[in-house]
Write a structure and sequence with these properties.
Blueprint: H1 4-11, H2 20-37, H3 55-65, H4 72-93, H5 141-150, E1 159-162, E2 165-168, H6 176-179, H7 181-191, E3 251-252, E4 258-262, H8 268-278, H9 290-294, E5 311-320, E6 323-335, E7 346-353, H10 364-375, E8 383-389, E9 393-401, H11 405-413, H12 423-436, E10 443-450, H13 461-471, E11 477-483, H14 490-499, E12 504-507, H15 510-519, H16 521-525, E13 527-538, E14 543-549, E15 569-572, E16 576-585, H17 601-604, E17 615-622, E18 630-636, H18 650-665, H19 676-685, H20 694-712
Length: 713
Amino acid sequence: MVDDNELNSLRAISAPRPSNEARDRAMRAAMQAFEAKKVSVATQGSARPVRLTDKATKLWSGMMQKKLYATPALATLVALPIAGYTTVYLLKESPFSFGTGGQHATDAPARQRPQEAAPSQPAKDIGGQQASVDKKMDADEESRDVLADLAPAEPAKPEVVTSGGKASLGGEVRQESEAFAPMAAQEAEIGRGIVAAPAPQSAGRVTRDMAAGANSKLMAAPSAAIAPSDMPILQEENRDRFEDFRTNPVRSALEDPVSTFSIDVDTASYSFVRRSLKEGFLPQADTVRVEEMVNYFPYDWKGPDTAETPFNSTVTVMPTPWNANTRLMHVAIKGYDVMPAEKPKANLVFLLDVSGSMNEPDKLPLLQSAFRLLVGTLSPDDTVSIVTYAGEAGTVLEPTKVSEKDKILRAIDTLTPGGTTAGEAGIKEAYRLAEKSFVKGGVNRVMLATDGDFNVGQSDDDDLKRIIEEKRQSGVFLSVFGFGRGNLNDRMMQTIAQNGNGTAAYIDTLQEAEKVLVQDASSTIFPIAKDVKIQVEFNPAKVSEYRLIGYETRALNREDFNNDKVDAGEIGSGHSVTAIYEITPKGSPATMIDDLRYGQASTDNGGVANADEYAFVKIRYKAPNGDVSKLITTPVTSANEVSSFDAASTDQRFSVAVAAFGQKLRNSDQTAGFGFDKIIEIATAARGSDPFGYRSEFLSLARLASALEGGRQ
């Protein structure tokens, strides 16, 4: 118990005067809070704010129960440390948090928050011995300093010391724009991801030391903040967006004999499916695009002999492993492989997302490593530019020859995340640079790397599509590379890649970056044909029904095939493209659609030309710099048949196994009775040459899917 003499002594104590450092820190915190409150829209990748726990409440309640408030001086000694504890706790855990780790306060300014400086003194245990009242009233000097810092300021003329001067907030007032101009300029640089945000100093003064860590090869992974034990853990919202689509239906060859679609050499879906399975869950159906699964793998299809014909097609008809009463029509296309000596000069613009949500190990650090790998594959005469975007777009590197590789790599290494996502401004700036250093007869391409949404400027997919359609008229192509999870806008990536004469890939590991940007660098960067469309006409005399496996998002109208104004897919150097139809021969018991009562006369009257053909395959394409398409045709006859599935080539059988796997993940009715064990059996027998281990990894994924499906049941 505290006796009366001690209480009387406490009443006589005067509150200590505040120090200049305390006033500076208080004014700095107030200005930061004021600036933060002016922004109400959450930045991309922002974490939801958390509530203050009841630690401070319990502490205060305990003090009040002991009636320590009876003596004003003692109450001051007790209340001020509690207020200090609460302030520190709020600064750490409230929406004004300055912690790193890729999380930004909901109403924080649109830029990266620097990590909070470590306190110079350990926190006081207010309920323990260090917070007890000394009977002789000679508190130690450290405690007096803490109380002095927390005491209210006397009426004076406080000033805020910035990097550019002082702004007096009392008496003689200077212009705000003058006092805070250096801060505004610094914030603009941070918003573009050009410089790192400064770390706050213990005295509350602003510094401009932006070069710390700039020469490191990769940005260090942010350390996760440790939440109090009684704080509820909030599950981060998954904002991945994929296009909803329905699996292609079975169609009647008599009623609807023509199938038309754009080729697709994207691989994003396979990488996303792989990540899902490795994280222990079956992917959602709409994340699975079967054609991207099939086309992920390199195949040894027969290619053209000369560059005059940019690609060659091979068509094979074989039995279907999951249905004895149907057959598969396998269409394989191989692009001309440009030899290194024949490769045209490349003018590449790296358009890199450095917004706040990229502050995760599998985002910006992985992006930096990936593009370092890409630079290593380029020729000295190639040109690289770098544009970044966060709150606004900025040019980090003007067009630079790859012969100055160190300069390019330094520009990549110094990128730091922070801010919102002004993707539209970034796209426009990237195309401007690409056009500025345009290489006639060469490769001109913007390479966009992002984790998701554009939330500043035009952000609607259709609006972005129109922008890309306008820009592609300049002859500049666009490729898109996705990184990370939780904010991935795959739908947007597909839209702008398809309309920018480019490809879309998803990079989840450094190994995938090496595959996409090193092993497949030629096909990723160097186009040999654009606007490539396929149209297949089935002969109802031989085929009663057909079904295209995959390509749902690439479907075209029948009349689009001959319309050169309609955009389609691109084929790069050495690219292989595979399309598979499941067909039902005429008279097969697998027929699902009844014959038309009055339709037989058109096919049974002997007037059908080329009645022995299964189908007629037409491919239309343009040269990379051309505007007029050319046509390649291939009739499919019994000469294209193989007697058994095992008689098909190794690559054909493996591609069919992958197609079955994709359909299985999409819960397709056609493969409902075909187990993962059968898929694994086919893929194992057809693994063949596998120098990079892609097919072995597929087998591992199939086993994971089998185990997860069993667990779901």
